Protein 1
Amino acid sequence: MKLLSNWQIYALGSAFFAGLTVLFGKIGVMNINSNLATFIRTIVIIAMIAGILCVRHEWQKPQTIDAKTWAFLILSGIATGLSWLCYYRAIQIGPISKVAPVDKLSVALAILFGIMFLGEKLTWQVILGGGLVLLVAIITATS
């Protein structure tokens, strides 16, 4: 019997590294402008992912990627960039114990967007999970 599926392992890895991201980011943004900190972080991410693509031989010719994929990846990149800029400014001026839970409202919003735009199913577990994320954000942000 398999304990966790692949997506669950990657999701836990994402959560773990996101937790480290806020800690390292808070320390790293203490003495510089938050926008510059975000820029430096982005350069590191680009270099790291380019290295992974090289090692795994996963590069693909840009012309083989369809226009819809390009459009949504560009929109995702813009949203990510704006999120990072807001996040780094928030952790620069606020405590991570309050910023991180509010940032995780993205979970509840992602659930909502998945239901509205992708036709994902709304179950009692999804409602409960999203509601708890919302509750945690409200409690920590207002304490």
Protein 2
Amino acid sequence: MNQKKIIDTNGRTISKIGIVAPSFFVEKHNNFINGIKELKSYCDAIVYGKTVNNRVYNTTGTAKERAEDINSMFSDPDIDMIIASDGGCRAIEVLEYLDYEMIEKNSKIICGFSDITHILLAIYAKTSNRVIHGMDVINGFGEGLYIKQNIDLFWKNVETDQWNMGLSKAKILKEGSGCGVTIGGWLNAIVNLSGTEYFPKDNKIILFWETIDEEPNRINMMLQALRLSNLLNRVEGMIIGELTNCVEKEYYDCIPTIEDIILKACDGYDFPIIMNAPFGHKEHKGTIPYGLKVIINTKRIPLIS
């Protein structure tokens, strides 16, 4: 029985959740089992994509097979929400095989984070369907640290259309104000898709991003790439999450601080920049829906409304 009824902003009751594995195979089995157990307390049934339990090198099947799992979840009227099992490094391969026309006609929430950002960006860009960044089965629902806080925030974002993340410990890197719609996720995916048909076309963006295991010199190159792609011309505000294990090794004795790198990459733009927001690959899996219109004003509390 469904113990805790969840109703999304479209009035859809979350009764049956579809699980897909479009990137990494299920390696952390205990986390996966724990995550599924947690999800079952919020829905009546879990449905698994055909590739979820497979392993083909570091993924679960061909790009077409993984894309078909996502397509089938959207086409099934009984599936109310789709959640990725994990991140990885292969999600970009499925984008050309997704049936965006069908997905748009069968709108339902899809969520994940890290490498799954590729899929979230593409689906939002092509369909404007509701997507939520920040939680998956293994690293979100199945992870012990801060799990209740993360889960409560996730469902609050499913049920409401407003900014729900606290920023009491955030750092204001650059003062200012701006208004736009939230788009972002894993920095690497943002860079990969910026300038392509798979990146949202919104003109006023609140760009949120985080990354893991990237040296600051690499983060600099990615931010400079966004600058050259003219994406920053569309940014009205920037929210940076937790930068996990982003320690300089190559140029450890001669590289600017990460704060200086960010400020330099954004030089000439007047949008506000907030750092250390509670989302990313660490214990805080804060969730952020795409397309949420928010206002940043660093002169007031709360910073975002």
